[in-house]
Automatic annotation (TrEMBL):
Residues 80-180 form the AD domain. This is Protein with role in RNA processing. InterPro entries: AD (IPR047574), Lsm12-like (IPR039683), LSM12_ABD (IPR019181), LSM12_LSM (IPR048478). It comes from the Eukaryota. It holds the Pfam family AD. Signal peptide: none annotated. It comes from Halocaridina rubra (Hawaiian red shrimp).
Amino acid sequence: MAESSECFNIGSLVSCKTCFNEDLQGEVLAFDPNVKLLTLKSAASSGRTSLCDIRMVNLSYVSQVTVIREAAASPLPSLPSLNLDKLNSRAKRSIEAKQRLIQALQSGVTPDGQKLFLTICKTIEEVTWMGPNILVMSQVIITPPYLPENVREHKDSKDSNMKTLNYIKKIVDKFHKDQQSVSLNNGTNVAPVVAEVQPVSQ
């Protein structure tokens, strides 16, 4: 067994005794000499072989470190290149979604309207606010109170597409049915059960 040094190679097996007299042992995943932080990987305390425990050990609170098995120093693996265009596109979409939500709040849109808007955004990207109205694909407009009967073709739309209109109506209808189901499951808006009693003939 070799005594600890100022640097630990990735993959080395290390044993540490903490100031609480606790023995920790594991494989070195990372080491930051500037803050004396050692990251160790060991078998899962749950006993599941598909999992492992990861511990971050501050060496300032360790009384003894022993290197049980030294791993050969090797260059770190190269990281995969990032698709910057994809990341920028995702960031732009996220910013646009937040801006649309801010527009909705400023327009005094009801919580139901905001939820419906977010529901439509999950399946269709081209969704915007026109004041308190939801505009979908520049073809369909949904006006408050955002019920299926409030879904109609947008008058400024260049294309008339009944298929899109009917599809949006189905989304709105399903949204309201799901909302009612959630309300019933939570015990709210439940109509009282009234039993009709018929007179019994003697």
